[in-house]
Design a protein that fits this description.
This protein has 338 residues and is α/β, with parallel strands linked by helices. It is 34% helix and 15% strand. The protein has 2 domains: 72 residues, 2-Layer Sandwich (60s Ribosomal Protein L30, Chain: A); 165 residues, Alpha/beta knot (3-Layer(aba) Sandwich), CATH 3.40.1280. The strands form 2 sheets. Strands 7-6-5-10-8-11-9 form a 7-stranded parallel sheet, with helices on both faces. Strands 1-4-2-3 form a 4-stranded mixed sheet. It comes from Cellulosimicrobium funkei.
Length: 338
């Protein structure tokens, strides 16, 4: 019944009233003051960043041990970092992980900054060859624990082995022309339009090196760069064939045309077969587009000739790497026969 103060719970027990107690104002103000700004990661002694900072300082002062020695987990610097680099360099530092991948990369002489080996690694023929190559070339070798290696490889299957690849140094368009002039042969440049798979870029580099191209030109945006995957697929050709980056591919093609080059686009609807190309003996730029979209409209309009590769009717198209390899072979053949 309303107003019945005899029912259980109707009255409040003394001291049960919620709210601030007497003298609590000072306590609340102290709570709001906090403990100050959070220290940087490298200033917190328990953080891995602090351990890397200490190791870097020791190396800088010459107290970090021999260059080809080993270090324990937590003292190795670097990893799969992603940050901006100086002009002309790539923007990504990658880590190649896995015994087969690392061994293939080392055999291909991919530039290496650091080689990581897991502690208590179960050795086999691949790891023994990796260690022999590392010792012979003087690469930095760091021994790390599995948790640290998992972090460095971003959780990839590393099998206890990984290498850190430095950013690639890109050339300028003029550098490709200079390389042609030094060779004493008419310029032969490959340009890629919208090719985003670094493995395709690596295969193009391999074909470019095999058939005498003086360099490869790629756009700066929405295109594959020279990453660890491209290095590996190129089978070492990335160390011999320069790659230039252009802010605007159409503008770069225009500069090459002003320098005396003819631009030949590769497309299924070309007006001539690549094997019958009359311009093959002239200074040449061969442009390949992506498998899905082909050449963009502006790039196609910048071409002097659009050539095609005769293929069976059952096959819709060839990817950029295959089309470029066939085209470079035909150009090299026509130049030999001229």
């Amino acid at each position: 019944m309303a107003g019945n103060s005899q029912r259980r719970g109707a009255t409040r027990k003394p001291g049960s009233k919620k709210g601030a107690t007497v003298g609590s104002g000072g306590q609340r103000r102290k709570g709001l003051e906090g403990r100050g700004p959070t220290p940087k990661a490298e200033d917190r002694v328990y953080h891995a960043a602090h351990k890397r900072k200490v190791a870097d300082e020791k190396r800088a002062t010459g107290r970090g041990g021999p260059a080809r020695g080993t270090e324990r987990a937590g003292t190795s610097r670097g990893g799969a970092s992603r940050g901006g680099g100086p002009k002309g360099r790539g923007s990504v530092q990658e880590v190649v992980a896995g015994r087969n991948s690392v061994l293939e990369a080392l055999r291909a002489r991919i530039p290496v900054e650091v080689v990581y080996l897991a502690s208590r690694l179960d050795a086999d023929d691949r790891t023994r060859e990796i260690v022999d190559i590392v010792a012979g070339r003087g690469y930095d070798l760091l021994e790390v624990g599995k948790p640290e290696l998992d972090r460095l490889t971003d959780g990839a299957v590393h099998q206890g082995v990984a290498i850190k690849v430095p950013p690639y140094e890109y050339a300028d368009v003029d550098d490709l022309l200079d390389a042609a002039e030094e060779s004493g042969r008419p310029p032969l440049v490959v340009a890629l339009d919208g090719v985003t798979d670094p493995r395709n870029l690596g295969a193009v580099l391999r074909s470019a090196g095999a058939f005498g191209a003086h360099g490869v030109l790629v756009p700066e945006r929405r295109a594959a760069g020279v990453t660890a995957s491209a290095w590996k697929v190129s089978a070492g050709a990335a160390a011999r064939v320069p790659v230039a980056r252009a802010t605007n591919l159409v503008r770069a093609l225009g500069e090459l045309k002003k320098a005396g080059c003819f631009v030949v686009g590769l497309d299924a609807g070309g007006t001539t077969a690549i094997g019958d190309l009359e311009l093959a003996t002239e200074p040449l730029v061969v442009v390949a587009g992506s498998e899905g979209k082909g050449l963009s409209r502006l790039v196609r309009e910048a071409c002097d000739v659009v050539a095609s590769i005769p293929i069976g009717s059952d096959t819709e198209s060839l990817n950029a790497a295959v089309a470029t390899g066939i085209s470079l072979y035909e150009v090299a053949r026509l130049r030999r026969e001229a």
